[in-house]
Each structure stands twice: as C-alpha cells, then as structure tokens.
Amino acid sequence: MTDKTAARLKSDGWTVVETSGFLHLIGPLWQRQIDGEHEYALVAQDKHHNRRGLVQGGVLMTFADRTCGMTARYVSGKPTLATVQFDTHFVEAGKIGETLVSKPHVVRTTRSLIFITTEVTVDKRCIAMASGVFKILKTET
C-alpha cells in the first residue's frame, strides 16, 4: 500500500485496527464509524493476488468474516465469539490496488447467536456478498 493511499484513508476518518496472527498477514485492516455504523476497509495489495492477478477469494472471505465478527463482538459486548456458519458469494473480481469496503449489518441477535450480512464493495461495485452466524461463547472465569 502506498503512503498516498494510507494518507487518503486517514483523511477520510479511517484508523488502523491492531491485529495479530493470520489477519496481521493480510492487513492492515482499517475501520471507522459513520452515523454509528461500523465500516472496514482493506487495500488490495500485491500479496493478495491469485494466479490471474486478481484478489484471491480467500482474502475476500477472511475480510468479510473478520469484519462481521468484529461487528458481532461490538453489538454483543462480549469478548469471545466464534463463527459457526459463513456463506460467501463472489460477484465480481477485485483488483490489486483497489480499496475493499465492508459495512456489516446485524440481521438478528439472540442470547447466544448473532446473524450478520455484509457486502464487500469497491466504490459502488459489489465484489462479494456474505452472511454469517456467530456464537457468543461463555467467558471463562
């Protein structure tokens, strides 16, 4: 990612999410809130390409899963959740250099489950659609 891209994201109100493990290898992941709604961004870099030079589907799935999970954690107020089901539909190819955006939407919450959908977009283009179910895990004491 170029310094110019990072500067543009920062000027638009995005901040970097502190990550570790697998997501740290994919990131940096960006976040912001607009009118109380969480938005996440990932700039597609060369490390994200598949054999055709486009954004690898696994990157899109990971990005969608992580952003939905972060939103589930926020709305539940619980620190520990697990993805128990996740569906992804690839709509159009993402290109290296594009900024992918996810705006998760909570469909329903119960005492133990959270249902969320998102679209991964580039500008007005839908790249992928995803929906997931997240289980609220018991906090160990």
- CATH architecture type: Roll
CATH class: Alpha Beta
Approximately how much beta-strand content do the residues carry? Answer: 35-45%
Instruction: Using the CA coordinates, give the radius of gyration.
Output: 15 Å
Structure description:
This protein is of the alpha+beta class and 141 residues long. It has one domain: Thiol Ester Dehydrase, Chain A (Roll), CATH 3.10.129.10. Helix content is 25%, strand content 40%.
Spell out the key features of this protein.
alpha+beta, Thiol Ester Dehydrase, Chain A, 3 helices, 141 residues, globular, single chain
List the topology elements.
Elements: H1 3-11, E1 15-16, H2 21-26, E2 29-34, E3 37-43, H3 57-76, E4 81-90, E5 99-102, E6 105-109, E7 113-122, E8 125-136
Antiparallel strand pairs: 1-2, 2-3, 3-5, 4-8, 5-7, 6-7, 7-8
Can you give me a brief rundown of this structure?
With 141 residues, this protein is of the alpha+beta class. It contains 3 helices and 8 strands, in the order αβαββαβββββ.
